[in-house]
UniProtKB/TrEMBL annotation:
This is Enolase. Pathway: Carbohydrate degradation; glycolysis; pyruvate from D-glyceraldehyde 3-phosphate: step 4/5. It holds the Pfam family Enolase_N. It comes from Dictyobacter formicarum. InterPro entries: Enolase, Enolase-like_C_sf, Enolase-like_N, Enolase_C, Enolase_CS, Enolase_N. The active site is at residues 210, 340. Catalyzes the reversible conversion of 2-phosphoglycerate (2-PG) into phosphoenolpyruvate (PEP). It is essential for the degradation of carbohydrates via glycolysis.
């Protein structure tokens, strides 16, 4: 593949929280065009690539992205327009070298990622290939399955104003054979949850950043118990038809080497035991960020305690960063990667992170962010990169549904099966 960029153009748009983000257009000499919007996170890891914001308190409370947009329209366009490029890797290498910082803070990871993705979409148009096929070809992967969705049911933490400490309880429609069936099952459970929360807490179906319901749970235990109850009220068997996953997001309640959870102060060892207790009582097939991102010494103990029964999934802990992933592999600290492309800033680096995880026989969950747009490229990425799971959010809000509806479209076009669950030969049975 060789191609020439004719022009790059960008502008500021708003994400699903009403905050600014970046949209970019890449036009090739062949007249193929790729237009992409990039997301933004709320629960962000300290090691994430740096989003460039304007820091003008008089406009969007400093969150504007005009500087990032100007960098695309100016310096990045000047460097790339008219340039013959042989691959996505070559483009991304130029962007990284042009920025010349460790965390992409000069040009902005939001600017760099927008160009990286827009170029990929333009090249897929030039090749007249679906975007998912182009992504698969980038990693020389066959198209075999669709990722199984993990779908927000209840939210807390930074996604929902902190009314409960942990961030999300998610549904995993484990018995579903198709994406269509998985979403139908989720709809039934979500409606059951809406009815339960209204009856139990008097709350209407008001939702958090990613569409999860957010009633005033008194503690995490109640949140998990209510999730199981809603599954059963919808007519399914918890632990067989539908499993649960949790995003603990422990970094956000970790202070002075203690976990401030449910009005208690827990040591790392006590936090591990708490997670193990939840695992023994609830059908949890994935536990994300069970410990804080900097609690490195205790992640191997967490993995030793629960790793044979569930996915020990790293988000803030790993930040889709090849260096952190390599360290976690060496330390036997996890067995799954939550892959967020904007945590690292280019497609090529995200592909490297994905390949590293695969080399250790880890599972990979392709994830959206709390601040999303109506763009659906994430669905194509999860299919093309053979994601085991995809984490988009709930089945409400248009920016979430854009990705689910794209998965349904890909399913209709390709007839790819939904990946089997569990994928690692282990299962935490609850019935």
């Amino acid at each position: 593949m060789t191609t020439i960029i004719k022009q790059l153009k960008a502008w500021e748009i708003l994400d699903s929280r009403g905050r600014p983000t970046v949209k970019a257009r890449c036009e090739l000499e062949s007249r193929a065009v790729g237009i992409v919007s990039v997301p933004s996170g709320a629960s962000t890891g300290a090691a994430e690539a740096h989003e460039l914001r304007d820091n003008d308190p008089a406009r969007y409370r400093g969150l504007g992205c005009r500087k990032a947009v100007a960098n695309i329209n100016g310096e990045i366009n000047t460097a790339l327009a008219g340039r013959l490029l042989a691959s996505q890797q070559e483009l991304d290498t130029i962007l990284i070298e042009l920025d010349a910082t460790a965390n992409k803070s000069r040009l902005g990871a939001n600017a760099i990622l927008a160009v990286s993705l827009a170029f990929a979409r333009a090249v897929s148009q030039e090749r007249q290939y679906p975007l998912y096929q182009h992504f698969a070809d980038m990693q020389e992967l066959p198209l075999r399955t669709l990722p199984r969705p993990t779908i927000n049911l209840f939210s807390g933490g930074k996604h929902a104003g902190g009314q409960v400490d942990i961030q999300d309880v998610l549904l995993v429609p484990a018995a579903a054979q198709t994406m269509d069936e998985a979403l139908a099952v989720t709809f039934a459970v979500y409606q059951s949850a809406s009815e339960l929360t209204f009856k139990k807490y008097g709350t209407r179906s008001l939702t958090a950043d990613e569409g999860g319901l957010a009633p005033p749970f008194p503690d995490t235990e109640t949140m998990l118990a209510d999730a199981v109850e809603t599954i059963e009220q919808a007519g399914y068997v918890a632990g067989k038809d539908v499993m649960l996953a949790i995003d603990v997001a422990s970094s956000h309640f970790y202070q002075d080497k203690l976990y401030h959870l449910d009005h208690e102060q827990l040591s790392s060892a006590a936090m591990i035991e708490r997670l193990g207790n939840w695992l023994s009582r609830y059908p949890l097939v994935s536990i994300e960020d069970g410990l804080a991102e900097d609690d490195w010494n205790n992640w191997p103990d967490l993995y030793a305690r629960i790793g044979s029964q569930t996915l020990v999934l790293g988000d803030d802990f790993l930040c889709t960063n090849p260096g952190r992933i390599q360290r976690a592999i060496a330390n036997q600290a996890a067995n799954a990667l939550l892959l967020k492309v904007n945590q690292i800033g280019t497609l090529s680096e995200a592909a490297q992170s994905c390949q590293l995880a695969r080399s250790a026989n880890w599972r990979v969950t392709i994830s959206a962010r709390s601040g999303e747009t109506e763009d659906n490229w994430l669905a194509d990425l999860a299919v093309g990169w053979a994601g085991d799971q995809i984490k988009i959010g709930s089945i409400t809000h248009g920016e979430r549904l854009a990705k689910y509806n794209r998965l349904l479209e890909i399913e209709a076009d390709t007839h790819l099966p939904l990946i089997a669950w569990p994928t690692d030969g282990s299962q935490n049975n609850h019935s």
